[in-house]
Write a structure and sequence with these properties.
There is one protein chain. This protein is α/β, with parallel strands linked by helices. The strands form three sheets. Strands 1, 4, 5, 6, 7, 8, 9 and 10 form an eight-stranded mixed sheet that branches. It has a two-stranded antiparallel sheet with strand order 2-3. The chain has a two-stranded antiparallel ribbon with strand order 11-12. It contains 17 helices and twelve strands. The protein has two domains: 3-216, Alpha-Beta Complex (Spore Coat Polysaccharide Biosynthesis Protein SpsA, Chain A), CATH 3.90.550.10; 222-370, Hypothetical protein af1432 (Orthogonal Bundle), CATH 1.10.3210.10. It is 48% helix and 13% strand. It has helices at 3-7, 12-18, 48-58, 72-78, 97-108, 127-136, 164-168, 175-183, 204-216, 222-231, 236-253, 261-270, 280-290, 294-301, 315-324, 334-344, 349-370; strands at 21-27, 42-43, 46-47, 63-68, 85-88, 114-119, 144-149, 152-153, 157-160, 187-191, 326-327, 330-331.
Length: 373
């Protein structure tokens, strides 16, 4: 059976399990506009290229080819303990990134079925984006997936094996974008709420933006939260509920010390992004974790029921309680919030126990903060 037709029948996990997936990292350039060697510039406690590699390894990809050129020996020395294939572009001073990509494809073509292609200086693409691209490549008629953010095309590209020949036969005009233009409907562009896919380090200001992004990426801004809500098709009713939960959470924060209000607001605005799906807390938490917002994910995972109550109230307890004090978009008492569920499940012992357990958690927290219900 042709791979195209097989891919149309499987989900992303099955693709990861059954198909050989690789990543080609282009790192042969001179970095002339940066006035420094981009792949080896610091990014937190690692370099830019190490951060990029780590992102794909986190996805479970271990077939990695790096095309080197300028200062390639430094990259090889840095990564000498990694299981990586290095290909040198001997003409790096006069050639283009497209030429490096062709060299990399020739090296890895016989060992992979799907291939991500990325420059070395694109370290912060979300796991959510990478996973979604793998799911979307299932479409039999699609050979290439290109992601975009707010109308700007970004990296990486994801190719089926069938697209390798299209690239190798291309004359290089407009690089990969020239190949994409020729492919027409065989290339699919997908928009994501992922700033990282449109970020690189061509100029000093770009590198500074990457550094700031790395420092600030723990949780999304309010504007980003609202874009994420739209991306996951949150209904207006659920949006209003989340806004009210965020408002009440801030009221609770005024009674407490050492609470990160930015974290609270982000979690409150996003706690119901998977509303309507079975086990929506778990699903929404996984989405957010894949988007890189792990701390927010942990709060969302427990917004229905806490695994435990901290001795000193944290952001997790604040969002949980705020959610229990808002019914739809109205402030209510804890008794009012749970009365409908208690009546609904009065003849279902197991479900009623769950409702009563959550109600008890809310009462404990309310008493810890305000003194009594």
């Amino acid at each position: 059976m042709a791979m195209n037709s097989v891919l149309g029948m499987v989900n992303r996990k099955e693709i990861m399990d059954k198909y050989k997936i690789g990543v080609l990292i282009a790192a042969a350039g001179m970095s002339s506009r940066m006035k420094d060697f981009k792949p080896l510039m610091p990014m937190g406690d690692k370099t830019v290229i190490e951060t990029t590699i780590e992102n794909y390894k986190l996805l479970g990809i271990n077939r990695i080819v790096i095309v080197i050129g300028h200062q390639g020996y430094k990259i090889k020395e840095l990564l000498k303990d990694e299981d990586i294939i290095f290909v040198k572009n001997e003409s790096y001073e006069t050639s283009h990134m497209f030429d490096s990509i062709c060299l990399g494809i020739k090296e890895i073509a016989n060992t992979v079925d799907l291939l991500f292609i990325t420059p070395a200086d694109s370290p912060f693409v979300q796991q959510f984006t990478l996973k979604k691209m793998l799911e979307e490549i299932n479409t039999p008629s699609i050979k290439i997936i290109q992601p975009s953010y707010m109308g700007k095309n970004g990296h990486p590209l994801l190719l089926k094996k069938e697209a390798f020949r299209d690239i190798l036969d291309h004359d290089g005009t407009m690089g990969l974008q020239g190949v994409i233009a020729k492919m027409g409907k065989k290339c699919k562009n997908i928009s994501f709420e992922d700033p990282g896919l449109a970020m690189d380090a061509d100029l000093q200001k770009d590198y500074l933006n990457l550094l700031k992004f790395n420092e600030d990426k723990r949780y999304p801004t309010v504007d980003m939260c609202r874009r994420i809500q739209d991306y996951f098709h949150m209904t207006d009713e659920v949006k209003r509920h989340c806004e009210k939960v965020a408002e009440e959470a801030l009221n609770i924060c005024r009674q407490l010390n050492n609470i990160d209000t930015k974290k609270v607001v982000a979690a409150a605005l996003l706690h119901d992004i998977a509303k309507g799906k079975p086990n929506h807390a778990k699903v929404g938490a996984q989405w957010l974790k894949d988007m890189g917002y792990e701390e927010i994910s942990e709060i969302v995972a427990e917004h229905m029921e806490l695994n435990s109550i901290s001795s000193a109230i944290t952001e997790k307890e604040v969002v949980f309680l705020a959610d229990k004090l808002i019914y739809k978009d109205k402030l209510v008492t804890i008794n009012e919030r749970f009365s409908n569920k208690e009546n609904m499940y009065k003849n279902n012992k197991e479900a009623l126990q769950t409702v009563e357990r959550r109600k008890k958690q809310a009462e404990i927290l309310y008493n810890m903060i305000y003194g009594s219900c």
